[in-house]
Design a protein that fits this description.
Structural class: mainly alpha
Number of strands: 2
Largest sheet: 2 strands, parallel
Number of domains: 2
Helix content: 40-55%
Strand order of the largest sheet: 1-2
Number of helices: 7
Distance between the termini: 18 Å
Shape: globular
Radius of gyration: 16 Å
Strand content: 5-15%
């Protein structure tokens, strides 16, 4: 499964999550002030495609269908959370798939995840763009997933 959620988005001492608190405040203010405009700008950056792509249009539609107050609450919960302290509790083998260009989760975060999980893990950085490569680049993601499934069956 592609890595769709970071365990910490905020930069911290000895940790790079990709965002400063001021960045997040700007994001939250944009959601509050003009939700539709925020959706239109956020969707192509998150998905990793141009505004005309089917994937971006579909993701935009799902964002537009969400109530702005709920979207703000979800964004605050996601972007302000920190689950680094429980990574060691994940002991099942993990295949971590990462886009080479991901607005929300830099490759360094994936490496931190890989190093701090409680079980074995494999990281594959794909030549896809965006936080949702399963939408923007299924031609890249599907073969990778199939290869990992075959690996698990053979192991």
């Amino acid at each position: 499964k592609p890595n769709n959620l970071s365990f910490r988005y905020l930069n911290d001492v000895d940790y790079y999550g990709g965002f400063e608190q001021e960045d997040l405040e700007q994001l939250f203010d944009a959601i509050r002030s003009n939700y539709k405009a925020w959706c239109s700008g956020f969707a192509p950056m998150a998905v990793g495609g141009d505004l005309d792509s089917v994937a971006v249009q579909e993701f935009s539609r799902t964002l537009f269908n969400m109530r702005p107050d709920i979207a703000l609450s979800v964004a605050q919960t996601i972007f302000q959370s920190d689950t680094r302290q429980i990574l060691h509790l994940i002991t099942v083998p993990c295949h971590i798939l990462q886009s080479v260009k991901d607005l929300a989760v830099p490759v360094v975060v994936t490496e931190h995840l890989h190093q701090n999980l409680g079980g074995e893990s494999i990281v594959e950085v794909m030549s896809s763009d965006g936080h949702l490569p399963q939408l923007s680049s299924p031609d890249i993601v599907i073969p990778v997933i199939l290869r990992h499934i075959r690996y698990d069956i053979a192991a």
